[in-house]
Every structure is written in C-alpha cells, then in structure tokens.
Amino acid sequence: MSGSYRGWVSVVRAQARRRWAAVTAGVALLCGLPVIASALPVSVPSLTAAQLRARILSSATLPYAGYAESNASFGLPPLSGLSSVTSLLDGVTKMRVWQGMPNQWRVDTLSDAGERDTYQAGTTEYLWNSGAELLTEVVPAGDQRTVRLPRAADLVPPALAQRVLAQAGPGAQYGVLPPLRVAGQSAAGLRVTPADPASTIGQVDIWAVPSSGLPLMVEVFGRGARTPALQSQFFQVSPWRPDASVLTPPRAPGAGFTITSASSLAGLLNRLEQEQLPGSLAGRQRVATPGGFATVARYGAGLATFAVLTMPGGTGADVLAGARSAGGAPYNFADGTGYLLTASLVNVVVARSSRTSDTFLIAGTVSGTVLLRAADTLTSTEQ
Hints:
The protein is an alpha+beta fold.
C-alpha cells in the first residue's frame, strides 16, 4: 500500500470521526437542553408579595396552551368507587391544556391506556374517552346542588394557584421567594402560609410569570415537610389564540354519545340522606355550600377546612369497614366508634353513632385532633 493511499485513507477516517463527533455532540446538546435551560440565569423584576399575588389573581382570564404534570404523594388508602380521585392524589398526572376563557377550556389527561379529555363549554361539560370512543355530555343540575368530585383540571398550575389564593383567607401570610426557571421562563415566587396552626398545610409555593401573573408551578407542603406532597408544573406553556376547533368536543363518525347529569356523576355524594348538620363543629363555623346541599357540610376557613358527609345505615357500614381494613386507628366516642386515617395534607375520620344508624365521613386539611372532636360531637348529638 502506497504512502499516498494510506494518507488518503487517514484523511477520510479523520473526516468521518469529525462528522460522528459532530452528530454525537448535537445529540448530547439536544438531550441536555432541559438541564441547560434550568441553569440559565434567572432575572425577574422586583415585586412585593402583594403585587405578585394581585397579578396571579388577575391572570385567571388569560388564554394559554401548554403541557403540565402533577406529582402527588398524599398516601391515601384505596377508596371503593373513588379510584379516579385517589389516582390523582397519588402518582403522576400528565395533562395537555388549552384555555380560552375561565369557562371555555380543555384538559386532556394522558396515559398508556389512551386519553380522557374534559371540555368546559360554558355551564356544560363534555367528557371524551378515547379508548371507548365515547363522548358524554354532562348537563348541569337544575337545582345547582351537585357536589363535584376532584378532576385532573383542578391540578393544572393556574387552577390550583387560583384556588389556593381564593381560599387562603385574610389571616394567611405572604412572602417573596427566590426566582426560578420554569418551562424555560423566569418565574417569580410567592409563598402562602396558612394562619391556622391546625392546618395540615405548612406552605404553598407558587411561581408565576412576573409580567402576566400566569402560574407556572405550584408546590404544596405538609406541615413540617421538606418535600412537597403535591407539585404541579408546566413543562411548556405559551399565550394562545383560542381556536374553536380545539375547544369543541369530537363527534367522529362511529363514536358513541351519551348525555348524563352532573348529579348522576357525583354518585354517592348526591344519594345521601338529607341529614341536618350543626352550624359549628370543633370550634369551626359551617360554611355555606352551593344550593344548601344538606348532606355535605364544610367547616372552617382559609386553608384549614374539613367536610362532613352523612351516610345511611348500609352504605355507612361499608365505609366504616373500609376504614378499618385500610388500617385506620380505632377510636371510641361517648356514643359511637370510629377510625382515623392520616395522610399527607389530608386526614379522614369515619365515625358511626350508636344512637342512630348514621355514619359520618369527616375529611379535610386539619389535624386529626380537630376531626376527632367533630366526630365526638356528631355521634353524640341527636339528629
């Protein structure tokens, strides 16, 4: 082999190595973009906590589109008939989001089994199940007394942040956090600290676009916890010009269609007996519920509230047995028995009155001590 041929081969090999080195570097750069983006300098204008809170609240009408994930670790035991709720509160929920207005939006929940999409069109809700190819129209209850179960759309960062600020109450404390880079954008931080020491929530941290106030990430911490029990954040989000074709539920040929009412979807919550619940429990005043729905009552204020559900004999006995099998701590009251289930952020007491056939499900973001006091009152009071 001549020296010139060997030299030519060496040049070709060197060029090939350079080309592959360039390809490898390009792949590494693409893979590292999220890390690089998070490491970029963060700069936000100087805002007070009050100014940032006001901007977040005013962002409720902004149109936007993006991809978000929530990661929850509440540690709730399995609840019969409520698997859709417990899955939201323990695990990762992946969501594509489009909002045109507060009452015109779409949230797609993504999983290996397909999509479950929720469309809000004014007062009417549509549910699309891609696996079953079924579209369900949910018409609002005529008397507006329906109790709605939690859904994935409640975990989208803007919806979660709006709810926290709306319910924090006048006694909550607000502070400014160091800025972060979220979804490739510089975000200003706001910390919300509940006023009530009985609240299971230690703090809620919200990061938002400083100019528009659009929340990009929300972290909810249990009292004394160093890691959030619930984190919801955008990985990509941008302003969006509302498109009717995106916000209109699919009516593909061959797909099924059904109509139901909101009260039907609420299931057990709307089939409970009409039981008169007291005006105050455990030192907390009762808060009015839409339509005066008598079987579900909410007590307390700010981020320290709990709800009470009254259940009749057979249904209540099943729930009490479920609390026992889930490992609830047993308690004896003056006129009843019950179980306490504790989890991050949420505590639950199921108590049965020995004077009546009623069982009470008491759950909320307050200490177990508060819930046990409420259970003792409910089981010993003539209904």
